[in-house]
Design a protein that fits this description.
Elements (H helix, E strand, L loop, with lengths): L3 E5 L6 H4 L8 E5 L2 H9 L5 E5 H6 L4 E11 L6 E5 L10 E4 L5 H13 L6 E3 L4 H7 L14 E5 H10 L5 E4 H9 L3 E9 L4 H19 L2 H12 L3 H9 L1 E4 L2 H16 L4
Parallel strand pairs: 1-2, 6-7, 6-8
Antiparallel strand pairs: 3-10, 4-10, 4-11, 5-8, 5-9
Length: 271
Amino acid sequence: MTTTRIGRVPYLNSAPFFRGLPLDERYELSDCPPRTLGAKAAAGEIVAGPLPLMDYLRLQGTFERLGHIGIAVRGRARSALLFSRKPISQLDGSTIAVTDETSTTLNLLRLLLEKRYHICPAAYDRRLHPEKRRTLAPKSTERRQEPEADALLLIGDEAIRFKRVNNQYPFETDVAFEWWLWQHLPFVFAVWAIRKDAEPQEKKRMEAALMQSLAANLRQLDRLAEESAAAFGLPAEELREYLSNFIYRLGPSEEEGMARFQVLLHDHRLL
């Protein structure tokens, strides 16, 4: 029996798709953050998954949308955060540390800084991520180090956790909210997509399974939040509010937001 590998982003905001996903033994879930998922899709290592929007736009030759489902917000995402020493509009010439996990959010930040605010940071550097620097540090110096960057871009669960302990960056910017203020449109972080050469029946099976688990989990956000509260060290009610903020069934406004993002990427030569 051939195994079909599905990419799974192990973030809380992706859980409504995956918790109890009714797939049989032909399917294998491969956990990977968004940027890695996009790379695996490009390499042909996964058949389907919630592709970061940037990767879907680049891979439209080999992938197609799986229904009208994805991950979007109208306003604050609360887990796509720029932590900085100065306000976002004053980051001209600054060095920005970037998590390895982001594919789409980095490009959103670039549009916000370079097109909305007309400023140019000195660098967007994945090597300056403080967690990576701590991992590489000798054991004798493993205390919390002051990052060299003027700002830090984090996404997903990592952003939620860092927000709780951050005492280094006095300014916090939700980049999805910045997009909303700028474009007055939802921001779409990911869309479900499947390889175009997958069997038609497999596409139908996948879409049906996703819609089933999504419908069930959106009725049980309280349970999802309660199951995750201990891991995050946050009240379940706070996590439920966080989850309820996301849009998983994409409508005309989300489609317009994606189209606007694509046009801006082309104009700025990021795509």
